[in-house]
Amino acid sequence: MTVTQATFPRGFLWGAAIAANQAEGAWNVDGKGPSVADAINWKPNLDLKDFTAHMAVTDENVADALNGTHDAFYPKRRGIDFYHHYPQDLALFAEMGIKVLRVSIAWSRIFPDGEESAPNEAGLAFYERLFGEMRRLNIEPLVTLSHYEMPLKLSERYNGWVHRNVVDAFVRFSNVCFDRYKDLVRYWLTFNEIDSIHRHPFTTAGIREEKCAPGQEKQDIYQALHHQFVASALVTRDCHAKIPGSQVGCMLTKLTTYPRTCHPDDVQASLKKNLENLFYADVQVFGNYPPLIKRDLELRGIELLVAADDLDILRQHTVDFVSFSYYMSMTESTQPDAERTAGNTVLGVKNPYLPASDWGWQIDPVGLKISLLELYDRYRKPLFIVENGLGCKDVVEDGKIHDSYRIDYFRSHFEQMREAVHEGVELMGYTSWGTIDIISAGTSQMTKRYGFIYVDQDDEGNGTLARLRKDSFWWYQKVIATNGSDL
Ligand code: BGP
After folding, report:
1. Phi, psi at residue 39, to the nearest 5°?
2. What are phi and psi of 452, to 5 degrees?
3. Which of 61, 133, 225, 482 is most buried, judged by most C-beta within 10 A?
4. What are the BP-aspect GO terms (predicted)?
5. What confidence score (pLDDT) does residue 2 get?
């Protein structure tokens, strides 16, 4: 029996991923309104251990963003000026040979207030130029509609997605995009890491928990999440109707969780974590709330306001593929002696068998294969890895960046991806996160670099913004050219 060599499928979509709020900069240019990302709290040298401080938001932050008074240090950093540099950056991506580029459309560039009677033409025109240039370079756009860029004025008006009106505003924004870009974009993602609403409710759903009624925070967050599920289904419906052949994906933070020991309590605890994580994709793939989650909400006294046709909408308009981010695996334990860490280091229990990045994220290539096998077996839908990579400190030496550690990271993950495909997983593509160095969402730093392309900008926003090809740039170019056979 001949044992065939594990390979990636012909036409595999090797690519790159960025997000408007972490790459574009130009936070108040050409009519763009402030987004929730523009109000994220940031202070120089904030203690990284205080992870939540980076994602917190204060009345002062919001007032500064709404009044435009905080551009002294922050928003100009909120990116690498991709807004103006995109022709040069796309040329670098094309030089690497990427087939697909994941970007997001900043909602507040299209509807600065969120509910205007007409969209901001300058914002629409920017993305039309961007997608047009991508097409010219034979780079397929993969577009995220919601990636932390909700209009701040909208979120302040309704306390984010808690209010049903935001569903209408988002559906309207999405339809303006489908109408304008129907000849340029066929791959769409609705909500980036829709599960992260619990980890940072403000950036993902515009919710400021201090504005919720006391004790209502969890109720409001689940209500907002329900509104996002309905909005995701409605825009999936509209995208299919308006763009024949289009494909819409959900997007999950894949947090595959291991039991720290074979103690049944540890196994049960990790199973609960895994089911809670998968719930968000379940709703968008199966079109209904899983029974265990419904029971969990009941036990917690959470009663969702569900409109008459909501459940039909969820059932009728499910996604075409499942996309996800994968950075690390997690470990769960019920034992008191388990070493726990918090903050922007690894979230939860340390896994003694795995190394960790400088930011404490546990590096686990096998965990990626486990995630692929699990997701494909559960959903029987094509999968797309739309975020993966290693955030670390790079050093420039004589204009070079010798990032062999990044090559090692990707090589080990690509080997596992290739094995998963060999074992039957239908994997559409892969976009590395932050293929060009951009702002970290969790820490607002530039220091936490993911790219194959270095950008000369520091954590204070100083630098020439010059782009430099790292050693890994040439390695990824070779991987793409050989469709992953030469790692
Ligand atoms: C994911 C976000 C991305 C990106 C990534 C890396 O949660 O979808 O926007 O930020 O995390 O995280 P960080 O930038 O904090 O290193």
Report:
1. -110, 5
2. -85, -15
3. 225
4. carbohydrate catabolic process
5. 61
Regarding the beta carbon of 277 and ligand 1, being less than 6 Å apart is answered: no
Interval 159-178 mean pLDDT: 98
Please state the pTM of the whole predicted model.
0.97
**pLDDT single digits (tens) 311-356:** 999 999 999 999 999 999 999 999 888 877 765 555 678 899 999 9
Taking CA atoms only, the protein residue closest to ligand 1 atom 16 is: 440
Q: What is the DSSP string of 199-255?
A: T-HHHHH---GGGSPTT-HHHHHHHHHHHHHHHHHHHHHHHHHHSTT-EEEEEEE--
| C-alpha of residue 337 to centroid of ligand 1, in Å | 30
Q: In this structure, what are the phi and psi dihedrals at residue 331, rounded to the nearest 5 degrees?
A: -135, 140
AA identity, residue 15 = G
Output the six-digit token pair for 14: 């090797």
| Interface ipTM | 0.98
Contact present, 36 and 202 (Cβ < 8 Å): yes
CA 199 to each of CA 50, 275, 295, 387: distance values in angstroms, whole numbers, following the listed order: 14, 17, 22, 18
